[in-house]
Amino acid sequence: MLNEETVIRNRAEGGKTSATQLRIALRNCGVIDPEDIEDAIGQGAYAALAKVLADGDPEGTIRTIMDSGLRGRGGGGFPTGLKWQLSARPQADQKYVVCNADEGDPGAFMDRSILEGDPHTVLEAMAICGYCIGATKGLIYIRAEYPLAIERLHIAIRQARDYGFLGEDLFGSGFAFDIEMRYGAGAFVCGEETALIHSMEGLRGEPTLKPPFPSESGYLGKPTNVNNVETFASVPPIILKGAAWFASIGTEKSKGTKVFALAGKINKVGLIEVPMGTTLREVIYEIGGGLQHGKAFKAVQTGGPSGGCLTTAHLDTPIDYDNLIAAGSMMGSGGMIVMDEDDCMVSVAKFFLDFTVEESCGKCTPCRIGNKRLYELLEKITRGQGTREDLDHLYNLSLVIKDTSLCGLGQSSPNPVLSTLHNFRDEYLAHVDEHKCPAGVCRELIRYEIVPENCVGCTACARNCPVNAISGERKQIHFIDQAICIKCGACLEKCKFDAVIIN
Amino acid sequence: MERIRTAEQLHRIRASREQMSLERREQGIVEVRVALATCGLASGAKSTYEYLVEELPKRHIEARVLRTGCMGYCYAEPTIEVTLPGAEPMVFGGVDPARADQIIERYIRQGEMVDGHIPRNYEKVTLE
User: Fold this and answer.
1) Are residues A102 and A197 in the same domain?
2) What's the structural domain count of chain A?
3) Buried b vs exposed e over A476-501: b needs ≥16 C-beta within 10 Å?
4) What is the DSSP string of A286-345?
5) What is the CATH number of the domain that holds B44?
6) Is residue A1 part of a domain?
7) Sign of CA dihedral A88, A92, A93, A98
8) DSSP summary character for residue A242
9) Are residues A229 and A91 in the same domain?
């Protein structure tokens, strides 16, 4: 059986034999009972906190995190050690450590899984962070749609207090730290740290301009360090196994491992954790078991509504922060949606813009109105009414929204449009020039037709057509009246003789 | 519970947990983990869990049934992991009560392989 060193060595030697996962953040998920603190202790929980407090060297601990190369796992990829250092610098009577558990990308469930499977790792890392930056209070901002994660966190916090891992005088060091929960209503924008802080303050979840950064003036105007769940979950192993160990995993600028929620048209949908630098091909074909029904791979969407699509050209690109940005996408929080030949990329862009329009807080004009206009242009194109000028307009407007929006949501929201425009331009051209949807998805652009050679006249399609658009006698060739057809696809589904096709 | 004030106290808990787990193995106690995160619950893992908790003692099999978080095999929920004494842990997917019955009778009792076995495809760090 492989061990952890083998995974790292295979990776370092470019070994292709085993695209094995390496679980650091997920190390205890599926292993321990999340409601039993001693089960967590049995796997080493709170040993890192004990070590940090015994060492009594917050600056040294921050240096360890810096040297490890850990970067923010929520999507931005900001160096975690540097963030801690910036939050440690200001003098203040009160500072805060915030855990961002507002996971909002469609199809992403990494943070929820960590909180439900191993809540203690997050509590421990928050206390470590608090000690390093000089904060005595921690807050977990979590969406109310995660009731089980909330329940398990409550149990974990209560147990940690009972055991003395939270509260006064932790491990006899004199350091006090406690954690409270704050609930969000599930707004995507509240994953942005300034909006998150305002939401915790009881204000509208709207972002504000940075600077001032939360590390100077955050929650209630006090220095605040905000990290994502997965980032925190990576901290205890770094403390215990050392910065050099963590830095030996991954690529030059992206160290460690990343958790991905692998979804879409893939055989083995699941939660995976791989060393940075693993290729998409390894993730999709080796870990994910390839595409469903043997269909051809078309694209993979990473980074959710802020990310973009990668194509067959990127299959062998090592996945890390910088490579994904260079390829026109981004790491994001780790959603990975695999698409096959039956997916229309214009519709995919429209899906994400629909989400953005819904989730834009409306504070700044480019995001509020610009994204709506982008959506309308995409809607027009998927109806076959788009023109080449619309494509230029789409491109230019995307750039303006990126450049002028207030926060990360608007600055990244046109990415799905830009990356599909760049990687799948011919598909857009087919929609505007020929008014055709090559993937056969856009309703207005497709026709269901019956191939006379295959039709046996079984009447199954006609009986199942909800609008009686199909005519034909038993054992005679049937016919679809395009004027009546609503393109629901019921006939295609019912036909056992492959006689119904999309044209 | 007395508050833990030193690394040694923490270590003692860890050591006693390891000891307990060792003793369970020696006594031939089977360990069964049921993935009970939101994803597992949504696909019916709760009834699998309840079935195991109820049936194992009834069939005179000494076992420790644990609820855990997500094991990562979304395509094969509900998933359980069975560790027979002295054997590597085995993960099984699509475990409804009927398959759980098979696993008890054939894998736990007789060590025979049953449908739904998922080969482990990851390594994890261990914290010393």
Assistant:
1) yes
2) 4
3) eebebeeeebebeebbbebbeeebbe
4) IIS-SBGGGPPEEEEEESGGG-EEEEGGGTTSB-SHHHHHHTT---TTSEEEEEETT--H
5) 3.40.30.10
6) no
7) negative
8) -
9) yes
CATH number of domain containing A466? 3.30.70.20
A212-263 per-position pLDDT tens digit? 999 999 999 999 999 999 999 999 999 999 999 999 999 999 999 999 999 9
For A398-416, what is each residue's pLDDT tens digit? 999 999 999 999 999 999 9
Residue linked to tokens 């193995």: B25
Range of the domain at A295: 257-340
Confidence tier at A4 by pLDDT (50, 70, 90): low
A474 and A374 in one domain? no
pLDDT at A15: 42
Q: Is the model's pLDDT at A452 over the cut of 80? A: yes
Q: How many CB atoms lie within 10 A of CB B64?
A: 15
Shortest Cα–Cα distance, B83 to chain A (Å): 12
C-alpha separations of A43 from A52, A129, A191, A236, A459 in Å: 18, 21, 30, 12, 63
Q: Are residues A88 and A214 in the same domain?
A: yes
Q: In angstroms, what CA-CA distances link A435 with A268, A420, A439, B99, B120?
A: 35, 18, 12, 51, 48
Higher pLDDT, A192 or A5: A192
Instruction: Of A236, A71, A53, A319, give the one whose Cα is nearest residue B125.
Output: A236
**Rounded Cα–Cα distance for residues A47 and A442 (Å):** 55
pLDDT of residue A7: 55
Residue A136 sits in the same domain as residue A39: yes
Q: Is A315 on the interface with B (CB under 8 A)?
A: no
A171 and A240 belong to one structural domain: yes
Share of chain A above pLDDT 90, in %: 90
- B118 to chain A: nearest residue by CA? A268
**Residue with structure tokens 């974990």?**
A156
On whether residue B19 sits in a domain, the answer given is no
- The mean pLDDT value of chain B amounts to 94
Nearest CA-CA distance, residue A499 and chain B, Å: 32
Rounded-to-integer distance, Cα A5 and Cα A249, Å: 10
Structure tokens given for A461 = 């399609």
- pLDDT beyond 80 at A2: no
CB contact under 8 Å between A117 and B37, yes or no, is yes
Element (H, E) at A425: helix A425-433
Q: Output the six-digit token pair for A151.
A: 């329940």
Q: What amino acid occupies position A434?
A: E
Lowest mean pLDDT among A18-22, A151-155, A290-294, B32-36: A18-22
For residue A8, is pLDDT > 60? no
List phi, psi (to 5°) of B4: -85, 125
What's the domain count of chain B?
1
Instruction: Establish if B125 belongs to a structural domain.
Output: no
Kindly list the residues from chain A whose CB atom is less than 8 angstroms away from the CB atom of residue B7.
47, 50-51, 54, 171
Q: Is residue B79 part of a domain?
A: yes
Q: Is A383 on the interface with B (CB under 8 A)?
A: no
Whether residue A467 lies inside any domain: the answer is: yes
